[in-house]
Amino acid sequence: MLEFPEVISIAGQLRKQVQGKGISHVLPPTKTHKFCWFAGSPEEYDAALRGSSIQSVEDFGIFVEMSFSNGKRICFNDGVNVRLMDKDREAKNYQLLIGIEDGRALVFTVAMYGGIILHDGNYDNEYYVKSKSAISPFSDEFKPYYYSLLESSKATLSAKAFLATEQRFPGIGNGVLQDILLTAHIHPKRKIGTLNREEQEELLSSIISVLHNMANKGGRDTEKDIWGLPGGYRTKLSRNTIASGCAQCKGAIVKENYLGGAIYYCPSCQKFTDK
Fold first, then answer.
1. Beta-bridge partners for 82
2. 88: pLDDT confidence band, cut at 50, 70 and 90?
3. Residue 12's closest CA among 117, 103, 84, 110?
4. CA distance linking residue 219 with residue 5, whole number of Å
5. Is 109 helix (H, G, I), strand (E, B) or coil?
């Protein structure tokens, strides 16, 4: 699933590869996916985009958004994969294909769920709106925003719930939070009300530094870029490392289901306390 680092990386790759390019055609799904959402019918996307060009590509929260010369936009979110192929005939099963004037194609697929939304700048979706207005962890405004949320959130919230629910931090999801919490030495079930000031500061520092590292390396090795290649950031806590042990102490990594998804943690480096 695409999160903050991958959204940044993919948007950057698209800017370099297709920004300024014209659209030759758009093809609807080759296979219906009941958990892939469109704005209207995907069969109408060709008439809306053919002959226009990609003017810009933005990244925010869990969304990448392409803006076209005719005022149309396409945004896609964390559950959507996009690949740049040399020829559109190389693609077989997809939810949308955008042909580029140079013969290449952007091919969109959805594994679990996701939206590929064509709109005029007025997409009224809670996740889109919150992502669009989100304060970036890389901005000067993030520190006071972080502390204001710590102050206003329930003390009984777990560290995972604080970071990854209610769209407090769009783009920080169940994937990136694993390494953030390991770096901060905080157990994912730890109640935020038990964090002292030093631990609060360490969590803030870890959010910023880990996300910077992930983004600078083109995303995590558990996700893929527009060429289908894994990101350059080697995750410390993920399905890739469960068998190899903790990168910090070499101890065993624990995997559990918690709040609707898997959590990974090191019992030695992330000791649990509710006091």
1. 108
2. low
3. 84
4. 5
5. strand
How far, in Å, CA of 70 to CA of 122, rounded? 15
CA distance 195 to 155: 9
State pTM to two decimals. 0.93
Q: Which amino acid is at 201?
A: E
Residue 139 CA to chain centroid, in angstroms?
Answer: 18
Q: 247: pLDDT confidence band, cut at 50, 70 and 90?
A: confident
- The whole-angstrom separation of Cα 229 and Cα 218 is 10
Taken in order of first residue, the domains within the chain and their CATH numbers are 4-132 (3.20.190.10), 142-265 (1.10.8.50)
The b-or-e profile of 56-87 (16+ CB within 10 A means b, else e) is: ebbbbbbbbbbbbeeebbbbbbbbbbbbbbee
For 44-61, what is each residue's pLDDT tens digit? Answer: 999 999 999 999 999 999
116 beta partners? 38, 76
Contacting residues for 169 by C-beta, under 8 A, at least 6 apart: 134, 137, 163, 207
Q: How far apart are CA 119 and CA 67, in angstroms?
A: 10
pLDDT for the residue 272: 84
User: ∠ CA 200-61-22 to the nearest 5 degrees?
Assistant: 155
**Are 44 and 61 contacting, i.e. CB atoms less than 8 angstroms apart?**
no
